[in-house]
Design a protein that fits this description.
Blueprint: H1 3-60, H2 66-79, H3 86-92, H4 101-114, H5 122-127, H6 136-143
Helix pairs in contact: 1-2, 2-4, 4-6
């Protein structure tokens, strides 16, 4: 085989390697895009499920028994931990004005759990008035960092 023939045979192979590399990059890109789409769908599903989870909790917060309301506030804090859910915060706000100090303290803890690691100032705005609460446990809980 002549030198020219060898060169011609080598060039398409180089081109094929480039195409294969491009195809691999493209496949990786497509996989990444599909992954992002799945993550977005999952986040939407989680938000929907969280809203569904709030309905029974909303009912329990209206219960006459303080213990049931307190445990429900704790459940909201644990269920929505670190989400910064404004829907959950809206449910907990009335508890901050409850006459029972244990209820206010449970609401403070739940709100701190909600906004843990979110960096949101929304929780701080809700907890500021409790710095002047008559009970030292509530005051202490509201001023500790979250």
């Amino acid at each position: 085989m002549t030198e020219e023939g060898k060169v011609l045979l080598e060039k398409p192979l180089e081109g094929a390697k480039e195409i294969k590399t491009l195809n691999k990059s493209f496949r990786t890109h497509i996989r990444y895009r599909l992954f992002l789409k799945k993550v977005k769908t999952l986040k939407t599903t989680i938000k929907t499920e969280q809203k569904k989870a709030l309905n029974p909790l909303k009912t329990q917060l209206k219960n006459e028994t303080p213990y049931v309301r307190k445990v429900t506030a704790q459940a909201i804090g644990e269920t929505f931990k670190g989400t910064g859910s404004s829907e959950a915060l809206a449910l907990l706000k009335p508890l901050l004005k409850d006459e029972d100090w244990e209820m206010r303290e449970a609401a403070v803890r739940a709100i701190k759990e909600l906004f843990k690691s979110t960096g949101s100032s929304e929780a701080l705005d809700e907890l500021k008035p409790l710095l002047k609460d008559e009970d030292h446990v509530v005051r202490g809980g509201s001023c500790r960092g979250y």
